[in-house]
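Q: Here's a chain of 163 amino acids. Please give me its 3D structure as tokens.
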Amino acid sequence: MKNFKIEFKWALIFSVFTLLWIFFEKSLGWHDELIAKQQLYTNLVAIPYIIIFVLALREKRERSFNGFMTWKQGVLSGSIMSIIIAVLAPIVQFISSTYISPEYFNNIINYTVQHNIMSQQGAEEYFSLGSYMIQSVFGSLAMGIVTAALVSLFVKKAPQEKK
């Protein structure tokens, strides 16, 4: 576990940031009167998420690999971080849905049904705590591993050969 201390730290930072982002979205009205914009604007969270992965992998490179890291080491570290994030994701989703924005599901269900995007039953099944918990676990794993692979391309650093 000591070997993954950095991954745990950054997974916690990622999770706390996610809660702050949900609060930010709610504060801007994206969970009620501006709910039509939420599905577009929520994608902006990808920018700070990538920054978090960059900072995490740079710290891992500097502290665990003496300033050098292969792509494979970066992917492994980022994947471990993604697994931890996925484990925390249902808790984050529960806090978001219960305490930060408890009206979100009702609002998004009403919006999608009123705009003929989904049926009432389909919307209720999709926009529910259980569904979002499952989506957050698998989304965290999939997007986290892809992000780790891409970020590792830029964070990797090989030792310079002496001439």
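Q: Can you summarize the key feature?
A: Residues 71-100 form the longest helix (30 residues).
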